Amino acid sequence: MILRLAFAQLRPETGLAGALDACDRAAAMGAGIILFPEMWNNGYRLDKERLSQAVSADSGYIGAFRDKARECSIAIVSTMLEKTAAGLRNTAVLIDRHGEVIQTYAKVHTCDFADEAVLTPGDGFHICLLDTAAGPVKAGIMICFDREFPESARILMLQGAELILVPNACPMEINRLSQLRARAFENMLAIATCNYPDGAGECNGHSSLFDGIAYSDDGSSRDMCTFLAPGDEGLYTADLDLDQLRDYRETEVHGNAYRHPDRYGLLLDTRIEEPFIRPDHRA
């Protein structure tokens, strides 16, 4: 099963009309999923004026993507500043190719040291069985800063995730790319990330696909980064061989086979001690 992924590495000024056009083009290119950068509906801006642009999950904004998914038979990861009764959230909505919302994920690790301190964190990580034109895939979502905590991808792997979809809005330099590589390696899953292009705030493009397969059949190491976009604005595609990944997961040593979770109790300790105490920390 070859799943083609599309990365809408577009400037936010493209707007909803440009996003829907990208969906048309991605479908014409044979993509089964199209992924947008983080908080697309307002270009990841959290100043007072932009906060007023928050939309609800049942808004016409999401409705337009649902209609387009149904029309083009393509799954869409639409992102937004979401308005809820509990507050504003940094949200990604996964819409299947039939136009149904199958997951609404709010960013758990909000950047509380920056403008995201005004947002309400999400309640956890979840997977779903996503029906694509190529076939079904077990998918989950992380958003940007979630990448920096190994627990995010680990929890998704433990639920069975094969593919993690990651909307992003930050400079993707060697260290952040290395975090994605590590998450894919240690969990034996694919990670697809879509970023804004050069010139959109501090972003620099470099959307990517890490396919999670660290070793070839002969045991030699291989580069899991099977796609890395340049900084330029554009709609890019990359293919993920899910059959190869599934075969690899059946035999390799990473993932869940050799873990010792009974030794990991300290991971649930909520105490924060020096040198990590920060005055803007919140639970």
Concise structural overview:
With 283 residues, this protein is α/β, with parallel strands linked by helices. The protein has helices at residues 15-28, 48-51, 60-72, 150-158, 174-187, 242-251, and strands spanning 2-9, 33-35, 75-84, 87-95, 101-106, 127-132, 135-141, 163-167, 190-194, 208-210, 225-228, 234-241.
Q: What does the secondary structure layout of this molecule look like, with pairings?
A:
Blueprint: E1 2-9, H1 15-28, E2 33-35, H2 48-51, H3 60-72, E3 75-84, E4 87-95, E5 101-106, E6 127-132, E7 135-141, H4 150-158, E8 163-167, H5 174-187, E9 190-194, E10 208-210, E11 225-228, E12 234-241, H6 242-251
Parallel strand pairs: 1-2, 2-3, 7-8, 8-9
Antiparallel strand pairs: 1-12, 3-4, 4-5, 6-7, 9-10, 10-11
Helix pairs in contact: 1-3, 4-5
What does this structure look like?
By secondary structure, the chain is an alpha/beta fold. It has helices at 15-28, 48-51, 60-72, 150-158, 174-187, 242-251, and strands at 2-9, 33-35, 75-84, 87-95, 101-106, 127-132, 135-141, 163-167, 190-194, 208-210, 225-228, 234-241. It has a six-stranded mixed sheet with strand order 5-4-3-2-1-12. Strands 6-7-8-9-10-11 form a six-stranded mixed sheet, covered by helices on one side. Strand 7, helix 4 and strand 8 form a beta-alpha-beta unit. Helix 1 (15-28) packs parallel to helix 3. It is globular and about 50 Å long. It starts with a strand and ends in a 32-residue tail after the last helix. The mean pLDDT is 96.
